[in-house]
Amino acid sequence: MKPHRKAGWIAGLMPAMALAACTSATPPAAMPAPPANPPANMQYLYGSGEAGAVSIQAFRALLNYAGEQVKARPVDSVVLAQGASLDAPAFAPCGQKPFAAIFDVDETLVLNLGFEYFDARTGQGFNDAIWDQWEKTGAGQVSPVPGAVYAVDALRSMGVTVIFNTNRAAANADATAQAIANAGLGKAVHGETLFLKGDDATGSKKDGRRWTIAGKYCVIALGGDQLGDFSDLFNQIASVPERRQAAIRGMAAKMWGNGWFALPNPVYGSGLKGGFEEVFPAGKRWDPPAATDGK
Q1: pTM of the model
Q2: Which domains does the chain possess?
Q3: Which has the closest alpha carbon to 259: 61, 127, 110?
């Protein structure tokens, strides 16, 4: 915009207008000071040796399992077939298709250190527009999850294709591929080894992408940090206690460590919900006994 020729006299009025505003308007609230430390859940996931150890442990278990499956040539993949349910599971057949392992990206293979630093310092919480900016510009501020680079390299050396299935936006495919490469995880090709939200009409649901992949590959391992990285069926369960039971009973309980491998993420996601009534069973609550006089 070109400056208006009246800008000079308008500028002369500004000090008086500003003074009037100060005397008649409530001053804006001061921005809160940044916290002294990141939240405890971020300290754990991004800073602790414990989280690193759990991640390495998960990847080692995945590699051991994958090696056995490559030798054995399984009949079925570990992707639930279309029409299956958690109570009546059925899996996509393998046939003679080449082997693949499917991984989520964020906090499964890649730690979004730059974004989480911003979040921790500002306390703004998740914002779609800021996350979109992060996808586009944050590829240089990521790190691999401990154990991820070794696992991905080892899988490829076994002849297993590593496929990334993430809810990052298809519009940002090139930037996401760069973030994956910057984390030391090699090349990701959109539509071949990189599947993104927007690739089909199902939005953030991942089953459709998994079925597409399982149509071409014998999928011998799934890795993720959310239950939706294994089946969208979990996210159809509204009750927090029922969802937990679905993950630790029946078919799902048999899959953990046997084709499905979960990575720790206490920072965000579908697992962070539930009130006191849902999280703590009525018969398992405790308060200190009332103090007794003389003791």
Answers
A1: 0.87
A2: 40-284 (3.40.50.1000)
A3: 61
